[in-house]
Amino acid sequence: MKRLGILISGRGSNFEAIADHIAAGEIPAEIAVVISNRPQARGLEMARGRGLNAVAIPSKGLDREIYDRMLLDELARNSVDLVCLAGFMRLLSASFIRAYPNRVLNIHPSLLPAFPGLDAQRQALEHGVKITGCTVHFVDEELDAGPIILQSAVPVLDDDTVETLSARILEQEHRIYCQAIRIVLEGRYSVTGRRVARA
Hints:
This protein has six helices and nine strands. By secondary structure, the chain is α/β, with parallel strands linked by helices. The protein has a single domain, classed as 3-Layer(aba) Sandwich (Rossmann fold), CATH 3.40.50.170. The strands form two sheets. It has a seven-stranded mixed beta sheet with strand order 3-2-1-4-5-6-7. A two-stranded antiparallel ribbon has the order 8-9. Helix 1 (13-23) packs across helix 6 (162-185).
């Protein structure tokens, strides 16, 4: 059974979606550890409520390389096979990425490469796009730039606010993140350059 390490910073709704899909037998894995860089993150409470191993490793004031070494040590302690970022609001160092090549996944609330970084939904509204969405990608050493596994489009409505648009994107995030994790765990893909092909 493959073992997931899920990194969160906040409410953990994508983590909960993953946990629900595992419980339903739709993702062939177990959650080895849920780690948050913020001790007060609601997702840690949710994880503990499910009886999962939930660990706070506070990042405040720590150098990125030092912090990432602490993360790697915790992931290794829990024999993690695949790392899933679920609202983890820190950039990972190159040394972290090299420790898990093509084994770190992220979900981003835009159709990358459009609107990388923070506040992607606000960026989409301010830019006036008619369609946005979400992207699951492998994490590489650049911000929101790794090979794309799955995307889902979400129309932008004339009366959308950041909140209403974010809520509709989040529904799609929960769906495609779980699909992408399954694809990766089952090895049903190949990566050539930037292109991820489904096997």
